[in-house]
């Protein structure tokens, strides 16, 4: 009989019944006091040569049930290489069918990036000579909020990721971005460092990551709905970053996310903020066009509907920052599903493709930095 565990960093699942490997019943746990849930991550022991059929019984009640359509879960034996497995959704429950070739295997909503891996990566980046590191605050659980700085130029760039802890693609993206910005031999990185000072917060919501949450921090706050009305008590992660931005100013802002429903990589602008004008549109269009040239995985035809003029939600990071500093601000969304552009039937949208998109965005930043004056 297989055993199912999720009592580890970033884990989330509740096992209802595992007495029959062909009829395992599971449910996803909500974000503590908040009602959001969709992220799952668990380990099966005693799995080798077993035909597993694992049904998530509460999938239809999840935060984004439309996200299960055409979705396939990911699995890994070593938590480095993740591959897609047979998954079906009948409108009520999500069922994962797989026969592992090893005794221990992990399953997740997307390639998992727990806080342990994050700390290892931050430790590696602290040794990069072209980066400086600081802790700009503490989370409610007492974890340090890391901020890296690169470059000495006059334009101020801010790049953040993982406001929503279940959107692990943001951390994989950061691996590609941070390694390229700290590469002394990379021409695009050199250009950007010479012309801009770049502030990078690789993971905004460490408490939510460790707790296995989808969208919220330890207080049950959705950080990407807390920028205008942030507080130390409910959203210290946003508060610390916002206060640091007030010290530095902002000329460019990119917030990296994942989208449950849309099988695309796309950018969302700050259209709808009171300050939106032709200059904002021109800058956004230029960045989007250059990213389309740089990345074979990016597209511009599918995205979110635009907010009406003056009606953008200023509690959202991109809207708040773009309005407050009248700067070029964007949200980058990546899929949990495979991307419809260049689909990969084995891995789907994957960690390596996230890293490459991070590298591609740096190239575009180096190409637009002179247009921000």
Kindly describe this structure.
The protein is of the alpha+beta class and about 375 residues long. The protein has 2 domains: about 5-110, Immunoglobulin-like (Sandwich), CATH 2.60.40.3120; about 115-370, Aminopeptidase (3-Layer(aba) Sandwich). About 25% of the residues lie in helices and about 25% in strands. The protein has 8 helices and 17 strands. The protein has helices at about 115-125, 170-180, 185-195, 205-210, 235-250, 280-295, 315-325, 350-370, and strands at about 5, 15, 25, 40-45, 50-55, 75, 85, 85-90, 95-100, 105-110, 130-140, 145-150, 155-160, 195-200, 250-260, 265-270, 330-335. It has a 7-stranded mixed β-sheet, with helices on both faces. The protein has a 5-stranded antiparallel β-sheet with strand order 1-4-10-6-7, with no helix packed on it. Strand 11 (about 130-140) and strand 12 (about 145-150) form a beta hairpin. The longest helix is centred in the last third of the chain and has 18 residues, at about 350-370. It is globular. It starts with a strand and ends in a 5-residue tail after the last helix.
């Amino acid at each position: 009989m297989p055993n199912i565990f999720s009592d580890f960093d970033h884990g989330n699942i509740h096992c209802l019944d595992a007495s029959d490997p062909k009829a395992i019943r599971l449910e996803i746990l909500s974000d503590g006091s908040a009602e959001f849930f969709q992220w799952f991550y668990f380990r099966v022991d005693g799995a080798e040569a077993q035909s597993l059929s694992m049904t998530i019984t509460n999938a239809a009640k999840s935060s984004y049930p439309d996200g299960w359509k055409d979705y396939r879960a990911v699995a890994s034996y070593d938590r480095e290489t993740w591959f897609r497995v047979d998954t079906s959704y009948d409108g009520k429950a999500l069922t994962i069918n797989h026969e592992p070739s090893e005794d221990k295997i992990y399953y997740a909503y997307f390639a998992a990036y727990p806080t342990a891996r994050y700390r290892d990566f931050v430790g590696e980046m602290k040794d990069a000579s072209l980066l400086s590191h600081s802790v700009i605050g503490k989370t409610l659980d007492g974890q340090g909020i890391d901020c890296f700085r690169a470059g000495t130029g006059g334009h101020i760039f801010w790049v953040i990721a993982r406001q929503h802890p279940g959107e692990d693609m943001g951390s994989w993206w950061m691996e590609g971005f941070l390694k390229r910005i700290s590469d002394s031999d990379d021409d695009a990185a050199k250009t950007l460092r010479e012309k801009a000072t770049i502030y990078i917060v690789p993971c905004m919501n460490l408490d939510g990551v460790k707790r296995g949450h989808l969208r919220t921090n330890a207080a049950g706050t959705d950080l990407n709905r807390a920028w205008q009305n942030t507080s130390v008590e409910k959203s210290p992660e946003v508060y610390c970053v916002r206060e640091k931005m007030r010290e530095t100013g902002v000329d460019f802002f990119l917030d990296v996310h994942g989208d449950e429903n849309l099988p695309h990589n796309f950018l969302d602008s700050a259209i709808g903020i009171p300050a939106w004008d032709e200059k904002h549109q021109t800058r956004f269009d230029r960045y989007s066009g250059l990213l389309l040239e740089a990345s074979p995985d990016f597209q511009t035809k599918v995205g979110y509907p635009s907010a009406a003029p003056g009606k953008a939600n200023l509690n959202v990071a991109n809207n708040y920052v773009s309005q407050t500093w009248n700067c070029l601000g964007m949200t980058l969304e990546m899929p949990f599903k495979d991307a419809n552009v260049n689909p990969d039937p084995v891995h789907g949208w994957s960690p390596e493709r996230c890293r490459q998109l991070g590298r591609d965005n740096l190239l575009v930043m180096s190409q637009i930095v002179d247009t921000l004056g």
